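User: Please predict structures.

Assistant: First:
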Amino acid sequence: MVAMIMTSCKKENVTETNTPPASVKRVLLKDITIPHLPSPYYHFEYGPDSAAVKASFGSGFTMYDVFYNGKNISEMRNNIIVNHDTLRYLYDNTGKIALIKFINDAGVTYRHVTFNYNGQQVKEIEWDRKEGNIGFLIDRTLSFSYFADGNAKQITEHRPAINGQPETTYMTQFDQYDDKINVDDFSLLHDGIHDHLFLLSGVRIQKNNPRKEVRTGDGVNYTVNYTYTYTNDNAPLTKKGDLLFTNGSDAGKSFQTTSNYTYY
């Protein structure tokens, strides 16, 4: 992986444009809205080639311009008033994402996201953060297993004990996938308001939509059964979940979740 990253780093000084590459026309997600959360929760805009050129999260909490080098995303640049971080993508010799650097307005790299693969599938993703004079410390790791069709079977999240936070590990299992188009697997990697959103360039975690999700391990445990409605293009229109808490003081309690999707 070190060799892959060093090779990729040589490719950083390239001409970047906000013009997306030519691509096949596909379903274009516009908004995801979730009741009681900032709306739209996710928003996307596209160029004439159907590749994303703008993305935002949390009703403008972060807003990104997306730049390309050929067919691959080269950078995502946050352009809100109080934050101008750049997310710079580096690729290995086979064209897969190897590393994303988080670079602040002063030009300092303060965070890395490193991708490890098993063949074409992402096996593990690690996040690290610069900690003073100590260097970079890993603060989040996701490990993946898959069904034979390429859909995620289990995601294991591990966070080590750092800055007074206890060590935690939990597993999320997915099952009973439909045969329709998944448009939001990028959200499986996004840590909400605590970290930057980044789009997956050539990487798929879920090709279809799971009807069942089960979380176990440290923290809150639950089971969710999902039902969907779909557009004529076989993309989700609504996603409703029946969530049941399975541990803690809320064990046995349930509530309904809803996500709504719109398209161009």
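Second:
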Amino acid sequence: MASWSDLGRELDRWAGEGRIATLWWRDDDAAKLTPEIERLVALGRTFGVPLHLAAIPLDLTDALVAALKGNGNVRVLQHGYAHVDHAPSGAGSWELGDHRPQGRVLEELALGFARLDRAFGARFLPVLVPPWTRIDPALIGRLPGVGLRALSMEGARPQRFAAPGVVALNAHCDPIKWKGGARFTGIERALDEIVGHLAARRLGRADGREPTGLCTHHLAHDEATWDFVAALVERTVGHPAARWIGLEAELEPAEAPC
């Protein structure tokens, strides 16, 4: 289990090798303007850290769009379409599974893409975040057909492209323990996920180019989770070997090599 000191030592190792450890921040389930999302956006703005809101297109409200207008610190990603479970009982929660015709699923994703593009323009990045981190593998290669050029799941990616034209940009730390009710997973466990991925990148056991991703859920945060996220951002922005990035550069080029 890692500590804040372990994180500092790992970043020092990156600095000693003359390398920059890139990090990125994704927050899921954005749709409405709430006190929690206002707190989240304010935290990112305070430290100048790019924040990627995974928004649910069907539930997106005008109030949230208006509140984010002109905020260059925020990027928007696509969180499925309606965040509705279509799987039978006992099969887990799936919106983007094979439980419906593939054409219908792609049609909804295209509708969601168009809605977010109209609402946010250039701040909408063509990155799909599947609800419940589940997607039918047969859909991935068809995402470019609806405009989506990246897929954000969980864990270290095995390679840069999840399919031709679809960049994998995963999250590696979720500081919330979900089973038994949402609550903070604990500093040691959360840092273990971050430090572990950073070390794997540095040592060549994971793709060194993939930025280390933090995934939060503003609506499910207890105060301990808020405190951890604030401490993580504050400690890393002050380290010369750490850099929080927006995903724009990670989307270019969008085509896998032949």
